[in-house]
Amino acid sequence: NGDTYAEAVELTDETLNQAGVAPVDTVRCRKDGSLVDVTLAASPVRVAGASIGAAAVYTDITERKLAEKQLERYAAELKQANEEVKQFAYIVSHDLRAPLVNLKGFSAELRFALEDIQRAIHQALPHLDEQQRQTLTTALEEEVPEALDFIESSVTRMDHFISAVLKLSRLGRRELRMEPLDMNVLVREVLEPLRHQIERNQVQVSVAELPTVVADRTAVEQIIGNILGNALKYLEPDRPGVIEVTASDGEDEFIIHVRDNGRGIAKDDMHKVFAPFRRAGRQDVPGEGMGLAYVQTLVRQRGGRIWCDSELGTGTTFHFTIPAGAQCET
Known about the structure:
single chain, alpha+beta, Heat Shock Protein 90, 3 domains, elongated
């Protein structure tokens, strides 16, 4: 093969004229003429300071190359599957919106109609016997309004679920804008809309010295905002609330820590923390269980990690990483 021969001559010259050739992946011909993937390492053979030849070691890397190609294929298939799932979620959620709007509209019409029926029935009640009056009163004052309340609350809940699925399906479609972010400034900006809630509940919030990172501002604001919002929602009312934001350096990454002294999470519920539509602990706070699933997706899509430590009755600490090697947009 002319290409491999020319490369061999070039590498031999490089080996003789320099200190050697660092291991390099290439292709060589077998005796039968077939090609084989190899790693080549070479060094010069010197006598009295003069190069008289070269010694080379070839390592067959056929299996490694096959594994790499298979891995690339799996990665491409996974990417395609993820895109299809996102598209499916978007289409299904979008198509569910129309009947949901109809349900909401017609339930409102039913409530208006119920008021008309109630007025008409009240006028007719004196002409009915006691059992008839009791049956109609129970149906119109209790059963039908309760059923309408259930329909409306279910529609509202489904609307929230659909919004959450649409929000997840849109992740990754927005183009990232990488820029230097002073995390001290960013956290203060995220805390500002929460200031009234913090002061009303007399929560002590402390922010240690945080690093400047290169990241997408919108994503980091959403991550921090969700975690701080959760910390405020799940504080224990019988003790002063404390929330601390700190940072540490990891290997090629910055780690942001958000600690609270809230109700904490039981060990048996830890697997639910980042699962979509799953909620841990008491269900006395409104929500669909999508906030942390959304946060986890945001963090992972930007090359980071997120996890939490928690003890029931003591509090929770969320940790997430921001890669240190990100480059600004030019």
